[in-house]
Amino acid sequence: MGTGIAVSEGKNNSRSGEKIKSGIYNTLLALFTVLTLSLLGFILILRFTDSTVLSVQSGSMSPVFNEGDAIVIRRTATDKLKSGDIVTVQTPDKSRSFTHRIIRVDFEEGLVYTGGDALKSEDPMPADISLVIGKYWFKIPFLGSFSQKMNIRFILILLAIIWLVLTAARFVLTAIKKRKAGEKDAKN
Q1: Can you list the domains of the chain with their CATH numbers?
Q2: Percent of the chain residues past pLDDT 90, beyond the cut
Q3: How far apart are CA 132 and CA 91, in angstroms?
Q4: Second label for 18, Cα 20 to 30 Å away, from 1, 25, 77, 88?
Q5: How far is CA 72 from each of CA 8, 10, 91, 102, rounded to the nearest angstrom?
């Protein structure tokens, strides 16, 4: 009798351990699925709203957004620009861009005068209005530092690969478990 109880307890402990492993695996798979679908949704929203994510490189617009934040800008018609808007402007050679608040717009000359909120004066040169590439929409704190190091497409592809590997592993492990259960039934 003592041996039968020990064996029975061992089987219960084994089943309990399998349930815990299965629960952890299912939770991880669910988290990766949600994260991957969220990133995909975010990318689709950016596409459909003609938006771009940029990484903030300086504190010139503090406290609205800070160095290391990610900001989302949306394309906008230049005739809709007004004083107080925060816009991203490309340099004439298109090698860099900056995001500052519009101080004034001169539609006759086709110029925007900008300045950073944390700066004491406006930018030294006005920008041609055609160089405005978008208007500030919202920020994601701290994501800019991360996105500088990692490409968002790379992250999405990596998450998709992890999800596929986890899903494939689940199918393989389930098949192995069923095969072993079938072999045990055949022996009995």
Answers
A1: 48-148 (2.10.109.10)
A2: 41
A3: 9
A4: 1
A5: 60, 56, 19, 17
Burial track 86-95 (b if 16+ CB lie within 10 A, e otherwise): bbbbbeeeee
Q: Which residues lie below 8 Å from residue 42, measured CB to CB, with a gap of 6+?
A: none
Q: Contact 145/54 with Cβ under 8 angstroms?
A: no
Long-range contacts of 2-7 (CB under 8 A, 24+ apart): none
The structure's pTM equals 0.66
Cα 24–chain centre separation: 24
Q: Average model confidence (pLDDT) for the chain?
A: 83
Greater model confidence, 2 or 61: 61
Q: Is 43:156 a contact under the CB 8 Å cutoff?
A: yes
